[in-house]
Amino acid sequence: MKSAKKIGKLLVITGLSGSGKDTIIDEFLSRFPHYRRLVTLTDRNPREGEIEGIHYYFVSPEELDSLYRKNMLVEKPLKYGTSRKATPKHEFKKILKDGNHLVWRIDTSLAAGVASGEFFKRIFSVTEYELLKQATKVVFVKASIDDLKIRRQFRDKTQHDQSNYSRRDEHDKLTLKKYESHFEHIVVNKTGKLKESVDHVVEVIGEKPNPE
Fold this sequence. Notes:
Blueprint: E1 10-15, H1 21-31, E2 35-37, E3 40-42, E4 56-58, H2 61-69, E5 78-80, E6 83-86, H3 93-96, E7 101-105, H4 108-116, H5 118-123, H6 126-135, E8 136-142, H7 145-156, H8 162-179, E9 185-188, H9 194-205
Parallel strand pairs: 1-7, 1-8, 2-7, 3-4, 8-9
Antiparallel strand pairs: 3-6, 5-6
Helix pairs in contact: 1-9, 4-8
């Protein structure tokens, strides 16, 4: 009789835009090369250094809408700054069937649903829901208002739209008020303190870097 395949692990990283999620993920992955990004879709062009299939799947706005209509995404495409993003369902096969360890960078409202268990219960079968619930750790990344503004302006440059971020922040505040009790793990990512922030994430997953 064949033994059941071992399910992988899912580390969810969330937080407001500009909190430093990608920077934390990059440093985390350099310490834990057996983890990979859970690759999401975006309808913008690649930024400098971004690689197709590693950082994102880059598609046109029309392609993203088509995938949603075909029920091939786990959520409705949401706008983040100057682009929209969404997650393809097939990425979860890597955890459930291939035993991969993945890092998933997602919107705060979606992460709240993942942390509470509501998301997995709605999208997956009962068996898959139980497996993913056990395999998942959710980390909320925070930063000061000043750090958020500086990082956003530096990243977006001439496309920076403060009014759009203000609307998003208000939405996220309401989400946090509703779901904050579900975020068990919170990391405060201060400028110049990346190592400490990533050390905190490492404590959450309870692993040692670079296992044999």
